[in-house]
């Protein structure tokens, strides 16, 4: 129905220049936002975000999500200030706690992730308000710094901060301190029931309600007129994610034995051949339980389940080649939740 919120999610599966055209098309079809991933060591989020912002006029542009460990807090604030200069009042800042073994493999010790996230959000928000900040925490130490704009806009920036959360404690923290939470993908719709409770617990700590927290949700989405082809495309992605991202494997509810068997086949980084060898371990019923895959009608019905269980806006991750078909399938006015 008209007015339905919908957003696009881009990662690394599509050519960057083609991504610019896809984002322009999504804007023309009424999508409210595009979120750019930054997960594996494959594609930085900030460069594509700047490109999307430069070639569009209305669509919001978000990081979906960057981590809070590898960018100094001053640089992080300056980066989002710069993006807001490029697209005023259209930038969304999504931050996550990253994940092991990737973080560990590049020398990051992810200790006390909740405290680290709390400090990041606190200092970042104050800097974007153009405050002069002194802060000495466990993870962030700054002395009298500010975004010292000499030439340009000095006013406080309106950049909503979203926490990408999967675990319950991070959900609570998002409800307490963030403008929104980016709910993860590769989970069944019923996963949201507990997530909503956890977000609300955090919100109540500071006198807020669940309705005060935006809750967009990443959804793996493979749309094809050939149902089997749509499912097989998502199957390949799930094979890789279940092996390499333990937090997603846990939240998906997949049997540990299946995860371990997939992990025994895939290396790091996984090769196309390894994924093809292991993908038979991901059955159709799992694909349809934790992704929106199939015909356009089936994909719409699955996305509606996530909205009915508390998500406020689907962030659709197109797997497969036809991004325009996905955009047309979910364009506001043609999508009924």
Radius of gyration: 19 Å
Bulk shape: globular
Annotation field: number of helices: 14
Distance between the termini: 7 Å
Unreliable residue runs: none
Overall pLDDT level: 93
Q: How much of the polypeptide forms β-strand, as a percent range?
A: 15-25%
Major sheet: size, sense and barrel closure?
10 strands, parallel
Structural class: alpha/beta
- What is the ordering of alpha helices and beta strands? EHEHEEHEHHEEEHEHEHHHHHEHEH
Number of strands: 12
Give the fraction of residues assigned to helices: 40-55%
Write the layout of secondary structure elements.
Blueprint: E1 7-10, H1 16-28, E2 33-36, H2 46-54, E3 60-63, E4 66-67, H3 73-86, E5 91-96, H4 102-105, H5 113-128, E6 133-136, E7 141-145, E8 161-165, H6 168-177, E9 180-183, H7 191-205, E10 216-223, H8 227-244, H9 246-252, H10 256-265, H11 272-278, H12 284-290, E11 292-294, H13 296-308, E12 313-318, H14 323-330
Parallel strand pairs: 1-2, 1-12, 2-3, 3-5, 4-5, 5-8, 8-9, 10-11, 10-12
Antiparallel strand pairs: 6-7
Helix pairs in contact: 3-5, 5-6, 6-7, 8-10
């Amino acid at each position: 129905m008209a007015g339905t919120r919908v957003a696009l999610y881009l990662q690394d599966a599509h050519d960057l220049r083609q991504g610019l055209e896809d984002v322009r098309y999504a804007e023309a079809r009424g999508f409210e936002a595009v979120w750019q991933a930054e997960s594996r060591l494959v594609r930085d989020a900030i460069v594509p975000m700047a490109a999307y912002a430069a070639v569009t006029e209305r669509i919001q542009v978000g990081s979906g999500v960057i981590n809070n460990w590898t960018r100094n807090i001053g640089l992080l604030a300056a980066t989002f200030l710069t993006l807001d200069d490029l697209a005023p009042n259209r930038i969304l800042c999504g931050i996550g706690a990253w994940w092991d073994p990737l973080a560990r493999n590049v020398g990051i010790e992810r200790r006390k992730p909740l405290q680290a996230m709390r400090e990041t959000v606190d200092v970042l928000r104050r800097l974007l308000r153009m405050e002069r900040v002194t802060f000495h925490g466990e993870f962030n130490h700054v002395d009298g710094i500010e975004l010292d704009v000499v030439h340009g806009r000095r006013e406080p920036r309106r950049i909503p901060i979203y926490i990408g959360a999967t675990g319950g404690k991070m959900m609570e923290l998002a409800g307490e301190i963030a403008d929104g939470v980016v709910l993860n993908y590769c989970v069944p719709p019923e996963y949201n029931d507990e997530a909503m409770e956890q977000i609300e617990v955090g919100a109540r700590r500071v006198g807020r309600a669940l309705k005060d927290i935006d809750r967009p949700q990443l959804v793996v989405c493979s749309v094809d007129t050939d149902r089997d082809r749509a499912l097989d495309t998502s199957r390949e992605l799930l094979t890789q994610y279940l092996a390499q991202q333990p937090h997603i494997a846990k939240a998906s509810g997949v049997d540990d034995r299946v995860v371990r068997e997939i992990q025994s086949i895939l290396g790091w980084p996984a090769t196309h051949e390894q994924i093809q060898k292991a993908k038979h371990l991901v059955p159709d019923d799992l694909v349809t339980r934790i992704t929106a895959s199939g015909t356009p009608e089936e994909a719409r019905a699955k996305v509606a389940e996530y909205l009915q269980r508390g998500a406020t806006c689907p962030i659709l991750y197109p797997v497969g080649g036809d991004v325009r078909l996905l955009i047309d399938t979910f364009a506001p006015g043609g999508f009924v939740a």
